[in-house]
Every structure is written in structure tokens, then in C-alpha cells.
């Protein structure tokens, strides 16, 4: 789910930071530039992990600050396809579910990637109709286990209408089509039975 990415960057240092020790000042500026930002194909920056090297410090013509060539590593949130995550349902519509991991919320689970027999109920909520005739609703704030189907990094739109949803630079598409996937409550009884059986065998 998390990975380290090494980056080299020519970093202009604002003069007001130069009163601090250079490594601390550079880390503060890197955090301002990258923290909570999405880098295409790398993921969402969670933290500046470390600084590998600092070179330069020259002042270029027309600039009032020194520029350093910095090599550093960022801790990135970048789940791989097929990885299983647990989130919380924060919304739903006719297309599917919206899920949050608390620190990242641009996750969707479309209807065609839900368990077989999942349909929308009369009130708009999605529900799973079991073979026994039970109706298991997927409600807001329910914890849900899903598999990462794909991660997209769409281009920034040139024109965006007022009624368009906010642009999301990183979008995860999830799936709950498979054993063990879906609401945690669905599988809690089976997991408890499995643990009890394992204890008895021991």
C-alpha cells in the first residue's frame, strides 16, 4: 500500500527559512511542496521520508534566493492492483459506492464490481440479495473490504462545469466481487468459526 520513491528536485529556498539549519529548512519546504499532493504514476505523498543529498546553494541571475539540488525519498500511498484494503462507505449513487480510507477518499466501487445479486433498493441504497432471500444493505459508515481493481491518474480538465464533481488527480476503482470481500459484518461469523476450529485442532 505504501512505497518509497526517490526524487531529485531543484529547490529554491525562501530567504525566511535560511535562519534554520539547512536540512530542517529544506525538509520544511519539501513538505510544503509535496505533502498531501498527488504525483502522477507515483501516488499520494504521505510524508518526506528522508533527504539523501544536498548540493549547490547558488543564486541564479534574477532570483533573490539560493537554489539547491536535493535528492530525497517520499513515502507514497500507491496500492497495487489486487491488493485488499479495508475502508468505510461514505456515499452511494446509481453508479456504485464511494469509500474512504480516512486519509484518502477518491475510491469508487461500481455496481458491476459488486457481489453477484447486489442491486439498488427502493430507497437508493445498495443491497445484496442472498439465495436465502435475505437483503443485506450496504449502509453509510459500514466497514468494507475491497480489492483494488485499478488506479487512475486523469489529466487536469481544461474546462470544468459548475455542476461537475471536484477534480480528483488520483482515483482508485475497487471490487467486492469475490469470497471474503464486502462488508466485514458479512464474514465475521465465518472468521470466528474458522478461529474456533483452528483452536480445537491445536
UniProtKB/TrEMBL annotation:
Q: Which residues belong to any copy of the RNA polymerase III subunit Rpc25 domain? A: 83-187
Instruction: List UniProt keywords, sorted A-Z.
Output: DNA-directed RNA polymerase, Nucleus, Transcription
- Location(s), subcellular: Nucleus
Q: Superkingdom, according to UniProt?
A: Eukaryota
Which positions fall inside the RNA polymerase Rpb7-like N-terminal domain?
Answer: 8-64
Q: Which InterPro entries does the entry link to? A: NA-bd_OB-fold, RNA_pol_III_Rbc25, RNA_pol_Rpb7-like_N_sf, Rpb7-like, Rpb7-like_N
Protein name from the UniProt record: DNA-directed RNA polymerase subunit
State the similarity comment.
Answer: Belongs to the eukaryotic RPB7/RPC8 RNA polymerase subunit family.
Described by its record, this protein's role is as follows: DNA-dependent RNA polymerase which catalyzes the transcription of DNA into RNA using the four ribonucleoside triphosphates as substrates.
Instruction: Please tell me one Gene Ontology term that the record gives under cellular component.
Output: DNA-directed RNA polymerase complex
Amino acid at each position: 500500500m505504501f512505497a518509497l520513491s526517490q526524487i531529485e528536485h531543484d529547490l529554491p529556498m525562501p530567504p525566511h527559512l535560511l535562519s534554520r539549519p539547512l536540512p530542517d529548512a529544506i525538509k520544511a519546504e519539501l513538505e510544503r511542496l509535496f505533502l498531501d499532493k498527488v504525483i502522477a504514476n507515483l501516488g499520494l505523498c504521505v510524508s518526506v521520508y528522508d533527504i539523501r543529498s544536498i548540493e549547490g546553494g547558488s543564486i541564479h541571475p534574477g532570483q533573490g534566493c539560493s537554489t539547491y539540488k536535493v535528492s530525497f525519498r517520499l513515502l507514497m500511498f500507491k496500492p497495487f492492483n489486487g491488493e485488499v484494503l479495508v475502508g468505510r462507505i461514505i456515499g452511494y449513487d446509481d453508479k456504485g459506492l464511494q469509500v474512504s480510507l480516512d486519509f484518502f477518499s477518491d475510491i469508487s466501487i461500481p455496481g458491476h464490481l459488486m457481489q453477484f445479486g447486489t442491486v439498488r433498493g427502493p430507497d437508493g441504497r445498495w443491497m445484496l440479495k442472498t439465495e436465502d432471500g435475505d437483503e443485506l444493505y450496504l449502509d453509510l459508515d459500514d466497514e468494507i473490504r475491497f480489492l483494488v481493481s485499478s488506479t487512475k491518474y486523469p489529466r487536469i480538465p481544461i474546462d470544468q462545469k459548475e455542476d461537475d464533481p471536484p477534480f480528483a488527480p488520483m482515483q482508485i476503482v475497487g471490487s467486492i466481487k469475490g469470497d471474503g470481500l464486502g462488508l466485514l459484518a458479512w464474514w465475521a461469523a465465518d472468521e470466528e468459526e474458522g478461529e474456533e476450529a483452528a483452536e480445537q485442532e491445536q
